[in-house]
Specification:
Blueprint lengths: L9 H8 L3 H10 L2 H6 L10 H15 L1 H6 L4 H14 L2 H22 L20 H12 L3 H9 L1 H12 L2 H6 L5 H19 L2
Helix pairs in contact: 2-4, 2-6, 4-6, 4-8, 7-8, 7-9, 8-12, 10-12
Length: 203
């Protein structure tokens, strides 16, 4: 951070401004084996991009898409508000956030393996595409909403999840939705993941 001439990334600035419970929790989550395994250690930690991914998930799960809309549709303002939320959480709440996150990461890996949070163009995948932050947000949120039993049921039907996901990625609207930070796109991509999960679980 103190390297001369090196421009600070947004998460590095947030890390400096919100020192304490919020930064400690994000660092702990980024260092969990579940997160590293689910992301195949492919999200860089040197400029805190890994922590920003996790913060985005926390924001959309616990503050919600409407809070993002109220922030003036600024992802930076929204993530600052999420840092404030983490700072003000009780210790019990932070433990719940940690446990829920780890369960979601383990579930994602159990379903998608090394292709979690990536575009999958076929079965088996022809190549391993980069981690997509929009897919990370939406799948993490969707999986985190499930009970342990529902997660197990989804894992048992992972072939169905992957098949539907591959077909959904071929749709122009969804493909566009995971390439933008617009409110309607964020809302739709979270709803799309929830719809895939509901279809597989027969909800």
């Amino acid at each position: 951070i103190n390297t001369p001439g090196l421009k600070l990334e947004s998460q590095e600035i947030r890390h400096a401004l919100y020192q304490g419970a919020a930064t400690d929790l994000l660092q702990m989550l980024a260092e969990t084996e579940a997160f590293k395994k689910a992301t195949n250690n492919s999200i860089p930690a040197d400029r805190m991009l890994d922590q920003e991914f996790i913060l985005r998930y926390i924001g959309f799960k616990y503050l919600g898409v409407e809070k993002f809309k109220q922030s003036g549709l600024s992802i930076d303002v929204f993530l600052n508000q999420t840092m404030e939320y983490l700072r003000d959480c009780t210790k019990v709440r932070r433990v719940q956030i940690k446990d829920t996150f780890i369960n979601a990461m383990e579930c994602a890996y159990s379903i998608f393996g090394p292709y979690a949070f990536r575009r999958i163009t076929g079965i088996p995948p022809a190549k391993k595409n980069p981690i997509n932050v929009a897919l990370f947000e939406s799948w993490s949120v969707g999986l985190s909403e499930l009970s342990v039993n529902e997660q197990r049921s989804l894992i048992n039907r992972k072939e169905d999840v992957i098949n539907i996901f591959v077909d959904t990625l071929k749709e122009h609207t969804y493909s566009s939705d995971i390439n933008t930070a617009k409110y309607n796109s964020i809302k739709r991509r979270i709803e799309t993941v929830n719809s895939i999960i509901a279809e597989v679980l027969g909800k």
